[in-house]
């Protein structure tokens, strides 16, 4: 029976495997390329792989097609959202909101008190995070000055 409290969604989230790594890295690198260039940062595949191995990784799908990636880790009483990446043609369709709502539900279910993430200061996704209740908590990577650390109570 349908639970009327659950919103119907065209999106499905599945646990990623190493078979998904190439997709996830290519998507993340492609989405972040402009920010890295503008802020004089260098992409390092070895660091992404290390982070992948330490994170819980998920692939977002719609009708069986991979359209995004979310990666999370637990830190103290917080669920840290490492990545929310959506394929360009799927942005502004609710995919990012679906991923963040899922992370918020997971954090509550795990008894955590907050979610946190980092975003480039010039990334338009920051507007979504603010709409969803995130507040700037200072820059964790102050030496770069390009990254905003944001937190939301769950």
TrEMBL record:
The cross-references to Gene3D superfamilies, in alphabetical order and at most eight, read: 3.40.630.30
Q: Where is the N-acetyltransferase domain?
A: 11-154
For this protein, the record's SUPFAM superfamilies field holds: Acyl-CoA N-acyltransferases (Nat)
CDD domains, alphabetized: NAT_SF
User: What Pfam families does this protein map onto?
Assistant: Acetyltransf_1
Q: Which InterPro entries match?
A: Acyl_CoA_acyltransferase, Bact_Acetyltransf, GNAT_dom
GO molecular function term, any single one? acyltransferase activity, transferring groups other than amino-acyl groups
- Record keywords: Acyltransferase, Transferase
Domain of life the protein comes from:
Bacteria
The record's section on PANTHER family has:
AMINOALKYLPHOSPHONATE N-ACETYLTRANSFERASE-RELATED, AMINOALKYLPHOSPHONATE N-ACETYLTRANSFERASE-RELATED-RELATED
Q: What is this protein called?
A: GNAT family acetyltransferase
Which source organism?
Caballeronia mineralivorans PML1(12)
